[in-house]
Write a structure and sequence with these properties.
This is non-specific serine/threonine protein kinase. Belongs to the protein kinase superfamily. CAMK Ser/Thr protein kinase family. SNF1 subfamily. GO terms for molecular function: ATP binding; protein serine/threonine kinase activity. This protein is α+β, with helices and mostly antiparallel strands and about 425 residues long. The protein has 3 domains: about 10-95, Phosphorylase Kinase, domain 1, CATH 3.30.200.20; about 100-265, Transferase(Phosphotransferase) domain 1 (Transferase(Phosphotransferase), domain 1), CATH 1.10.510; about 320-410, TATA-Binding Protein. About 35% of the residues lie in helices and about 20% in strands. It contains 13 helices and 16 strands. It has helices spanning about 50-55, 55-70, 100-110, 115-135, 185-190, 195-215, 225-230, 245-250, 265, 290-295, 300-310, 335-345, 395-410, and strands spanning about 10, 15-25, 30-35, 40-50, 80-85, 90-95, 100, 135, 145-150, 155, 165, 320-330, 350-355, 360-365, 370-375, 385-390. The strands form 4 sheets. The chain has a 6-stranded antiparallel sheet with strand order 1-2-3-4-6-5. A hairpin with a 5-residue loop joins β14 (about 360-365) and β15 (about 370-375). α4 runs antiparallel to α6.
Length: about 425
Amino acid sequence: MANEESTNGVVLFGKYEIGRLLGVGASAKVYHATNIETGKSVAVKVISKKKLINNGEFAANIEREISILRRLHHPNIIDLFEVLASKSKIYFVVEFAEAGELYEEVAKKEKLTEDHARRYFRQLISAVKHCHSRGVFHRDLKLDNLLLDENDNLKVTDFGLSAVKNQIRPDGLLHTVCGTPSYVAPEILAKKGYEGAKADVWSCGVVLFTVTAGYLPFNDYNVTVLYRKIYRGQFRFPKWMSCDLKNLLSRMLDTNPKTRISVDEILEDPWFSSGGYKLDRVLVKSQMEESRTGFKSLNAFDLISFSTGLDMSGMFEENVGLSLVERVVSAKLPERIVKRVEEVVGTKVVVKRLKNGGGARLEGQEGNLIALVVIYQLTEELVVVEMKKRGKGDEYNAQLWKNKLRPLLVELAEKQEVPVSR
């Protein structure tokens, strides 16, 4: 922004006129803005690049949220329009939910009628089912992260703590302890691993209980006491709650995740399906460039990372222990790039192609990971090729890089292509 301190009336990149401040968090400020071309309202989340570079965990959460929002397109999930950057800031332009948080709606009315709550809850379950079908587990569902638009429709937001399927360990479970205390599932507190989908169902149960009862099922000033109540499933239903709703909540707030109701079972529950309701088949946009091209495409956030020297490639579990060596732009087809990798490394290296033609894993004869080649779509004609390798390796691996992989990068970037590595 032209003036980082006084933002009201500033036009961002000639496209968005910044308005009032909507909220301030520990890591970002959120402003209302107007798209000058269309006149429509948007929300702009402003993040300092310095904070990203200085805080690896925060940077990982931001990248995860962006990558997740790119794959989720649903009427009840906040929409990400684009990512922009100045010299010192990154701007996320997202859908504006005019009516604010569901928390504020409940606070005004003290509690919602079951019919009113059921409408919101159906939208929440529809959004959560869509997330799970795309391999995304929110892990921080709460009233503060549920917004309402001008048509009183619910919008799920804040995917910074979300997990994706490739974070699941060999035991089939997630292990990161996260979430908001009053909404967290007991199995997460047990620190023995948990199913993301079942943990989300628990949090949805806390949301439904709170909006219909007017208070949280689990609450205490002492966090230790609070966690004990959650772990034991100690809560009381209000007198005015219907038997059908109590039955549903009892199944959602079951402390045993193995017997806890699933999302698909919720759809068949009497209270949820009252009046013959069936979940509509939601029409969603195609999954961006990834589904059209068959391999991962770069978004603006990726390009920002490239241009600033902010390497976030090691933030996900599959890249642990790898370091970015070099990155080049190439006009060669992804299939041809992978084939050339196979040709140059020889028989002593096992080349395992990544799904959808997105690159390859280079492994030793014993299955040890030597290097990773990742291909991203930049434009219709160009791709970005990243090569990552182990920080430490034996002499053979060092020679493999020097004599084979490094010359291959030069070959891929020859003539009209230019390197974009740091």
